[in-house]
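Sample entry follows:

_____
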Amino acid sequence: MRTATTQLTIRDASAADGERLAEIFYDAFESIAQSHSFPVEPPSREFTRFKVLEMLSTNRFAGLVAERDGELLGSAFIDERSLIAGVGPVTVDPCSQDDGIGRALMEAALERERDRAAAGVRLIQTAYHYRSLALYAKLGFAIREPLSVVQGAPPALTIPGRTVRPGAEHDLPACAELCVRVHGHDRERELRDAIAAGTARVAERPEGVCGYATGFGYGWHAVAETNDDLFALLSSADAFIGLGVLVPSRNRELLGWCLANGLRIVQQSTLMTIGLYNEPAGAYLPSILF
């Protein structure tokens, strides 16, 4: 990889970097959250260690590290399972922030995706962190959707005309077609992984599949034809994992339903994009990547 600034090297991450990158991942989010009096987004150090090691163990995620004089200072990960690349997390050691490291990592990530001919790049930005918002805007990202992170006990409701069941391999074509109709691209590899992990759910009406969720919480997304289909999916959840579910704030009916059923807003985030983007033609819940 190119050198972004003097003495700072951006290179591919390796398995040997995992433990240190996991520490930086948690420390960076903890430092920012505490300075703004918000909850820490990753739930624990054990989680960041698990997540970093998981991403480093597969070729479906790319990892970049920032290094100076042999010291690891930060990293950026990219989910490359789709036509669209999802960037995150991007983290810098709190002792080395405001030194251009985050920008160097982002520039390297964008260069990688240009070389890979990705149709677009997306990320979810934490709204209270104004410096990251400014950085991403300078790099060419457009704000597409304000997001409300909601948390609480999933409402145990039955939505008329809908049934929800675990996702299966035979659902992949119908779910991919639905995602293309709503977003203009599919996320079949993510759904395939969620089916294998046992977290995927599919919503059906008598005429067929009308929605799916790869899971419920920060790390999963959902796509549906209508809000009622999303209501059915959300009502089937056992819990909302992590900080909560990311709800598009402009979807007044969906956000209102969540609040009316006892969920609370715990944070605001922002969906930002470069490249291919279509205004969604249906109901959806993004993951922490997009």
In short: The two ends are 25 Å apart (CA to CA). The helical segments are 18-36, 45-56, 101-115, 130-138, 172-183, 188-197, 227-235, 252-260. The chain has two domains: 3-118, 150-268+275-285.
